[in-house]
Amino acid sequence: MMNSCDKAYFDLCHRILETGKNKDDRTNTGTLSVFGHQMRFNLQEGFPLLTTKKVSFKLVATELIWFIRGDTNIRYLLQYNNNIWNEWAFKKWIESDEYQGPDMTDFGHRSLKDEKFNLLYQEELAQFKHRILNDDAFMKKYGDLGNVYGKQWRNFETKDGATDQLFEVIENIKKNPESRRHIVSAWNPGEIDTMALPPCHTMFQFYVQDGKLSCQLYQRSADVFLGVPFNIASYSLLTHLVAKECGLEVGDFVHTIGDAHIYSNHIDAVNEQLQRSSFDLPQIKINSDKSLFDLNYEDLEIINYQSHPAIKAPIAV
Hints:
Elements: H1 4-19, E1 21-23, E2 31-42, H2 57-68, H3 75-79, H4 86-94, H5 107-113, H6 115-134, H7 136-142, H8 149-154, E3 156-158, E4 161-163, H9 165-175, E5 183-185, E6 201-209, E7 212-223, H10 227-245, E8 249-263, H11 267-274, E9 283-286, E10 300-303
Parallel strand pairs: 7-8
Antiparallel strand pairs: 1-2, 2-8, 3-4, 5-6, 6-7, 9-10
């Protein structure tokens, strides 16, 4: 028997492998793609952290806290050894006039094909991370990813000024839980060109019924092998945090995806994962009564998480 989380994810993977069409993409990697898919996770059944491969709760949680704080600079993430946004900031540095190192053009593809180049790339990336952590001026100039998620959630620019969408939605859930307007948008058309990566998870909506809070995410583009397991866990965690903030229980997390794709260089990894059985889902525990805006990673705990080993695959930048 498969747990409900891994089964929903496997169904998506099978659909793409069996019916997906070859599609070119921004990264020139190539994908198998389908358009329009929805998964539903009952958060009362357990925390939906995939068990058929290890998914780092620490990476999920620290990234989400980074969003909630309205932060857009990778220093906070690096302080927790969270490297999932490094490549976009690194790209900003190597494309600047100040970069004087070796040629890093197309580092993502080249590092996979050329072992000697990969060693050089890792050295340059390590130097970059060290400077982000220890050089304030360098950090401010090259560690910031522009107007990405945290900025849009907490400081969304409108014609009338900035608005804190996340704070306002939480206040509205408390005051008017029946509203159909509990929405946060990360897609700000006027600022797309100022983002390191236009938001893939573009908007989410909360819904209250019978004392339970549910959340639906619309994701325009989904890297199914690397990204989707994190997205499921991240927005499920967000639902738990907002529910606690509002004095509610958790309901469902609904994940609606536009372009759901498996990169061509991830297919072998997906097939490896699909051969695995699942374990029981873990539980999430919030060990603090602080507001979610003041929470730290150390306040969160994942309980009884058992999984198969992680499966590595390259990220497309």
